[in-house]
Design brief:
By secondary structure, the protein is mainly alpha-helical. Helix content is 59%, strand content 3%. The protein is built from 18 helices and four strands.
Length: 461
């Protein structure tokens, strides 16, 4: 049956050649107007026109390419719509970043450090002893006399595991592993508490008064200023155990702040709640508790604590107002960035499929092109001026080469087929570059512009 059809096809072409007497194209297409027009780019225009197997394979390759092109077009349309949506959020980003310079908030801005004079006055009161005046003095304190004095509280008072010093908390139990940055603001405390500046004087105070909660508390400030979380907690533990109830919140605040700055936020919350329970009318306690709630993204409770601090001392009103405005600013910005990130992630699977299809496209096109005659060698009827123009427009890949016979270079041009032109429309590199640029944009804003909001879930507020 197949051989009969081929015979009829060849017979028809032969009759047409005899009737017209022209060098006609060997490939024709019936267009929508009912006209039969020659086709220069036909995939069945073979190098070896007599190769039946190659002819049959061309049909298989052509059908496969048509299916791939159909899916590529659908994916490209879908990706284009998603990229347009992402671009809209990118453009909207410019309206969200205007408030960044005015309300930027870094983690160091939210962490608690003593700034209240009333609080300082409570620390600098004359020491009248403590609830644990009979606490054991370490033998290291005596040995330390012959060495450079150091305000390491463990050298002046033994304190084994104690529930009273919150040793059951993971952060306290594993205090040797904690890290924190130095608290520079303690430099302002040195004027009021000189021993914070002088380790020798503080060590001497601890040696003389090893059961004084005040000196252990001040020693915890010294180590916080140095950024030594372990020694700061060692001193705060002893201060919590030694302090009378009236002043226990001071030691608890120092302990809770060290845990807060060491990123042990849940443990910090437990200790700072205890500080507020002991003295709810101390605004520093409320502020520190509010800060931990903030870092845990519990904004309603955070604002309750901030409001309590503000009602106790109006000096905090400006700070709290700044935080509220900052949250409103960065909430919109972060939501925008997260939406862009989600849209970008939604693009990637389609892009991966797009890239895989393009490789498959290239593979079948190579097979299809391998058997085709070069476009510039194909026979066509010069009477068709459109075909001539068509061929001229396809001469897009040109090179020069030298020959032995002539001293001048020869210009040689190749011609691009329909399938090759389609390959340019499906350039996956352009889409990959688009995704890379968007990733870089989003990451730049998330890293450099969000500040503290990289860590807290302001978008849920």
């Amino acid at each position: 049956m197949l051989s009969r059809l081929l015979y009829l096809l060849l017979l028809g072409l032969s009759v047409h050649h005899q009737q017209t007497g022209t060098e006609a194209s060997t490939h024709w297409l019936l267009n929508t107007n009912g006209q039969i027009i020659p086709q220069l780019t036909s995939p069945f225009y073979l190098r070896r026109s007599y190769d039946l197997i190659a002819f049959l394979n061309q049909n298989v390759y052509k059908q496969k390419i048509d299916l791939i092109i159909s899916e590529l077009l659908a994916i490209k349309s879908n990706l284009t719509a998603k990229m347009n949506n992402l671009d809209a959020y990118t453009n909207d980003l410019t309206t969200k970043i205007g408030c960044i310079p005015n309300f930027y908030l870094d983690e160091s801005d939210i962490l608690s450090t003593i700034i209240n004079m009333n609080y300082i006055n409570r620390i600098t009161i004359p020491d009248k002893g403590s609830a644990a005046a009979g606490a054991a003095v370490s033998s290291k304190a005596v040995a330390a006399k012959g060495k450079v004095p150091s305000p390491k509280c463990g050298d002046y008072m033994k304190l084994d595991f104690s529930v009273g010093s919150f040793d059951h908390l993971d952060g306290i139990y594993n205090r040797s592993q904690l890290k924190m940055v130095p608290e520079d603001m303690f430099k302002s405390l040195e004027f009021y508490v000189p021993s914070v500046k002088s380790p020798q004087a503080l060590a001497e105070d601890l040696r003389k008064n090893p059961s004084s909660w005040k000196y252990h508390t001040i020693a915890s400030y010294y180590w916080r200023k140095k950024g030594n979380a372990r020694e700061a907690l060692e001193c705060a533990r002893r201060a919590v155990v030694l302090a009378p109830r009236k002043y226990k919140d001071i030691a608890l605040l120092s302990m809770g702040t060290v845990l807060q700055r060491s990123q042990c936020l849940n443990d910090s919350l437990v200790v700072l709640r205890a500080a507020v329970d002991h003295e709810p009318n101390e605004p520093e306690n409320q502020m520190a508790l509010g800060n931990t709630y903030m870092l845990l993204s519990e904004f309603n409770r955070s604002f309750e604590a901030y409001k309590a601090a503000e009602s106790l001392d109006s000096v905090y009103a400006e700070h709290n107002d700044y935080i509220k405005k900052s949250i409103n600013c960065f909430k919109d910005l972060k939501i925008n960035l997260l939406t862009m990130e989600r849209l970008l992630q939604d693009i990637i699977p389609g892009l991966e499929r797009y890239g895989a299809l393009q490789k498959e496209f290239d593979e079948y096109h190579e097979k299809l092109d391998r058997e085709q005659a070069p476009l510039k060698t194909r026979v066509f009827d010069e009477a068709y001026s459109k075909q001539v123009d068509f061929l001229i427009q396809r001469s897009q890949i040109c090179t020069t080469r030298m020959t032995k016979e002539k001293s001048e270079p020869i210009l040689s041009c190749d011609f691009i087929s329909d399938v090759q032109m389609l390959m340019e429309d499906f350039a996956v590199e352009i889409l990959n570059n688009y995704v890379d640029l968007k990733k870089e944009l989003i990451n730049t804003y998330k890293i450099n512009s969000l500040g503290i909001y990289k860590k807290i879930f302001v978008e849920h507020f």
